[in-house]
Write a structure and sequence with these properties.
By secondary structure, the protein is α/β, with parallel strands linked by helices. It is 40% helix and 13% strand. The structure holds pyridoxal-5'-phosphate (PLP).
Length: 480
């Protein structure tokens, strides 16, 4: 919750206390350089023992509540008909308003089943923006994703409150060009992950629903980050300030035909699910569930996680839970902006994003500025972040480099895990790095896998800049 201090400054005070802790290690800058070199300048290949703050992702690394942990102890271990499933069904009904629930092992499994049932080869899926796994499943089944965001979405220095909106003119154009029968479904993703955690407005979602009704199109909501989108609607959309997060989530869900989510995000567990009020859709999806996931009442999830997810769904409607990461991200971004560091604005849902093109303007996209920045942040702080730029975009069929729309270094803020002092540390070291940005050069691949190269690829620092940067660090700041 944001508390205004007597000085007038606002800080997001943590509305929880820590009762279980995990030790973390701050390695010296020389040790960090060794670890980074072993990892081929790829933060995915670092080990936890060498990481101080793990801000790679917000997926599966959030802190559970005492009630969620307690729930795991009373989970019902039945293969079929388990009570934990029925408690999940009750929670989905109460929180999201859907009657039918299909648990799956994680978000991408929901995408796999939805595409298997509702997408035919040659069809298209218009969406506000792609997510990596979403696009992969659509393309594997012979479909094409069409991103129909407003042009403003790619402006990293924006004040637009809803960069996650669908551009309605583009949606109408897609319908005209392809015809409704070639559209498998229209997809909206809450708090668009790869656009920098940007929300859409309910006004926009309602308009998309109307267009879908007019053309009898299926409307799918990816709600992996639904509570954060709802929290941002409450803050930014006229007419919603007095409404509760729970009420806004319900309204969003009422507009979609099919809802799915990764439970690794908002609900702070591991798993996922699909939900709907349409019995026909439910039965079509249900038939495939035991083939790919598991029996209906656990869907490939541990029943402990099913139980914790039911509790997490209810908890995520509390403003201090829905807003926990959002407020930390906002604080983080504003502190960096105060120091002149280029971050994506407005701050969004899951992470603070550095704009690598503005941070390192001397590095061409072919030398991976976001990857270099991610490596440099680790070297100067022990903080692990994720490249979301050209390294995360595989080459085309002819082996040509595809330059990404945005070169971002994503500093995820896992929910209820880090404190303001951790964020202050991050701000300090990233600001130091910004003041020494000229020392950072590009990267080149030494081992490049053909698909999803960002996971296992190994790179090297051009002009051995890791050495130059760590020498400068030691001279000014010492070993740590
Ligand atoms: C994480 C995520 C997914 C995929 O979920 P997994 O649980 O990682 O498989 C899909 N969509 C969005 C928006 C996500 O953030």
């Amino acid at each position: 919750m944001n508390i205004r201090l007597a000085s007038g400054k606002e800080i997001p005070v943590e509305m929880h206390k820590v009762r279980i802790v995990q030790k973390i290690h701050l390695r010296s800058v020389d040790e960090r350089r060794r670890a980074l070199e072993e990892a081929g300048y790829n933060t995915f290949l670092l080990r936890t023992r060498d990481i101080f703050l793990d801000m790679l992702t917000d997926s599966g690394v959030n802190a559970m509540s005492d009630n969620q942990l307690a729930g795991m102890m009373v989970a019902d271990d039945a293969y079929a008909g388990g009570e934990s499933y029925y408690r999940l069904v009750d929670a989905v009904k109460d929180v999201l308003g859907y009657r039918f629930v299909l648990p799956v092992h994680q978000g991408r499994a929901a995408e796999h089943l939805i595409d298997k049932v509702f997408l035919k080869p040659g069809q298209v899926v218009p969406t506000n923006y792609h997510f990596t796994t979403t696009r992969a499943h659509i393309e594997i089944l012979g479909g094409t994703m069409l991103e129909i965001y407003a042009d403003e979405a790619l402006n990293t220095q924006s004040t637009h409150p809803f960069k996650g909106n669908i551009d309605l003119n583009k949606l109408n154009d897609v319908i005209k060009r392809y015809g409704p029968e070639k559209i498998a479904y229209v997809r909206m993703e809450a708090t668009t992950n790869l656009l920098g955690g940007q929300p859409f407005s309910l006004e926009n979602m309602r308009a998309v629903r109307e267009i879908c009704d007019r053309h009898k199109l299926l409307f799918v909501l990816d709600g992996s980050l639904v509570s954060e989108n709802a929290y941002l609607i409450k803050q930014r959309e006229p007419g919603y300030a007095h409404k509760g997060v729970a009420e806004i989530i319900k309204e969003m869900c009422s507009l979609a035909d099919i809802y799915y989510m990764s439970a690794r995000k908002n609900t702070s567990v591991r798993g996922g699910m699909i939900a709907t009020n349409n019995e026909k859709f439910y039965l079509q999806l249900r038939d495939w569930l035991p083939v790919y996931e598991g029996f209906l009442t656990y869907g490939g999830m541990s029943v402990k996680e099913v139980e914790a997810m039911a509790i997490g769904l209810r908890e995520m409607t509390a403003p201090e839970v829905a807003g926990c990461a959002v407020e930390q991200v906002k604080y983080f971004a504003h502190r960096l902006l105060e120091n002149g560091v280029p971050v994506v604005t407005p701050p969004g849902g899951l992470a603070c994003h550095l704009d690598a093109r503005r941070f390192l303007p001397h590095i061409p996209q072919t030398q991976y500025p976001a990857g270099a920045l991610s490596a440099a942040v680790y070297l100067s702080s022990g903080i692990r972040t994720m490249e979301r730029g050209t390294i995360s975009t595989d080459r085309d069929k002819d082996g040509k480099e595809i330059l990404a729309d945005l070169e971002l270094t994503r500093i995820a803020v896992p929910r209820r895990v880090y404190t303001i002092s951790h964020i202050e540390y991050a701000v300090d070291r990233i600001t130091w790095l910004y003041q020494h940005r000229d020392l950072v050069k590009g990267l080149k691949f030494v081992e490049e896998p053909p698909v999803l190269r960002f996971f296992f690829g190994k790179l090297a620092a051009l002009e051995d800049w890791g050495k130059t940067l760590s020498e400068a660090f030691k001279k000014e700041l010492g070993d740590y």
